[in-house]
Amino acid sequence: MSTVIETEEHRALRTAVAALGRRHGRAHDREALWQEAGKLGYLGVNVPAEYGGGGGGMAELSIVLEELGAAGCPLLMMVVSPAICGTVIARFGTDAQKARWLPGLADGTRTMAFGITEPDAGSNSHRITTTARRDGDDWVLTGRKVFISGVDIADATLVVGRTEDARTGKLKPCLFVVPRDAPGFGRRRIDMELDAHEKQFELTLDDVRLPADALVGEEDAGLLQLFAGLNPERIMTAAFAVGMGRYALGRAVAYAGERQVWKAPIGSHQAIAHPLAQSHIELELARLMMQKAAHLYDTGDDSGAGEAANMAKYAAAEACVGAVDRSVHTLGGNGLTREFGLASLITASRVARIAPVSREMILNYVSHQTLGLPKSY
User: d(Cα 56, Cα 309) in Å, to the nearest integer?
Assistant: First the structure.
């Protein structure tokens, strides 16, 4: 894939991470890859240099995840731990919070999950019912979360709760770091058909008592702090999808170039070649929007990044699903065998369409935020 709009440093990072990915491959040991990526500095390329990171941003971190995905070994927790949690703490955390968490998030020795989704709220963050109330100098959290990735391997979870505005009485979102072993903090694994390294959990917060410094950022910042984490989440989901699509397409192109049924490789037939070419185009376009979103975010344009990140996530998900589908069809029966590693991607590719926000909600966002059409909700 073309990299002409990237800097020399970005191309070097892409090459180095691709080599790491090839060494580990589709049958990788997730823990070993995470540790090596952390030691090499790839997990923390977006973390400020003074806390052990690379001093970059979403542009660099998305390259890392995309290239690992293209090699068949994406690390889903990169979306959560360094991208969402690392970014929020770096932007809004106290000096003590930064010193406590960022070095470990940068080198991979510490991991943080992110808890926002609730059973009854879905994509409506205004319906979040997990509440935080003051009790002296402490905070007390009560509520439930669902589909929270990697809680069992995370040292803590950055939980989105809501506090009451003393002036208006309205609830506003706030972010709290909840240690894994906090009393009253329970988890139950959700039985998923999707066979992923990172498991999904339902969380219960039963009067979880936290010290005052568990609050990340200002109590009054509300949605600003929340979306500071959600935009990187969308950018990284796009990187996850583009990488997965590239992996599937690469397997299909290699197969079509060698597989012969009659006199020529099947890739010489337009019915095989054109769908693969179409997927290549779609993945390239999705990556360009992802790069735009990362650039806008890294330069401080939160509003522009919000629009571009949603578009990038949408485009990448559609491109990924299409690439996986066409790749499986190219291989025929072999596309469903464990040997070629494509069948499981049929399910995995749908994740990018569903999470962290559905394609329909992105269309809602674009229709009323970008096009100025009235809301239906």
Answer: 18
